[in-house]
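Sequence, structure tokens passed on for absentees:
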Amino acid sequence: MKGDIVRDLLKCGVIAVIRASNYEEAKKLADCCVEGGIVGLEITFTVPGADEVIAKLAQVKGANYIVGAGTVLDATTARIAILKGAKFIVSPAFDKEVAEICNLYQVPYMPGCYTITEITNAMKAGCDVIKIFPGSAASPSYFKAVHGPLPQANLMPTGGVDIGNATEWIKAGAVAVGTGSSLTAPAKKGDYQGVIDNARKFVEVVAEAKKGLSK
């Protein structure tokens, strides 16, 4: 099951980082992202009542998305999220205890790392995908450098990823991209159709970039 979740997330290649001020806003953003074709929904624990948002999204039968929890800082929060229905866990930094909880429940853990040491420690702990964070401080060339000694590392940039540079990240070896504000920005002006359009463009751009790599 864990492998299936990772496979489906990476097949889409885009994970939406959803931050909101309440459940209603988070649900709207989630719906827009799904309508645009994004499979992975990372509900951050900066959202008030994030555990209940995750629970409500996870309870939808036949949903064509995978709900996960983001900004998970400790093992307690990770366990709460998993019991509420989160199918993957994302953190801004690597935490060994979070990795252990995720392994116990066979839920993919995507910790935020930046250095080679952090990346290798996360891989040793069984992390399937490493979130390079903040992506805005890294670059596609950094991915190529990391893949020199660690070609087996599944790297995903988050932070600073937009529609304009997503192709470059994928071509540099990213297995997926995480995107938040550049995806959901139109919602701040009440333009939820803009979020749908952005989601669709992200999915199309990433799919096209991956297609180019397989040729």
